[in-house]
Design a protein that fits this description.
There is one protein chain. The chain has five helices and nine strands, in the order βαββββαββαβαβα. It is an alpha+beta fold. The strands form four sheets. The protein has a three-stranded antiparallel beta sheet, with helices on one face. β4 and β5 form a beta hairpin. α1 runs antiparallel to α2. The longest helix is centred in the middle third of the chain and has 18 residues.
Amino acid sequence: MKEFDTMPDNSKMWIYQAARLLSQSEIDYITSELTSFVNSWESHGSKVDASFNISSNLFVILSADESSTTASGCSIDKSVHIMQKIGQDLNIDFFNRTNIAYVSNGEVCIAKLKDFKNQISAGAVGENTIVFNNTITHKYQLANNWKVEAKNSWVNQFFSSKMKI
């Protein structure tokens, strides 16, 4: 397994956001499971050159260097299945896309969409609040497109509706 930081910038990437912050024992378990998975991950019988990173005790980022072996639909399904298994084993949802991760007072926070909208209405979250764009698909996007101001993300629509009220 490659170190995550040495993966090429054009590596394919999938970001799984936990529904809550992960404990150290959960991070250790995820690390063990994903190390085993990444070391044996194949696509049509060929080894997938892959790595992962756990960021901010919240995000599991899986990366595949497709320059030699492309991650096929079946191999991508296997990566989804390992994350589903990990989620079931730890009773953590990694697939709820309505949880918004954002930065407040220098700390990563999570809010359900409804609560996030309420925070906007209350003025606790603004257009310059940093939110995480988990839809990015390549490693080079981590630097400039993962952590973005809310006004430059899909949640911007909630500021527009607030202004119309």
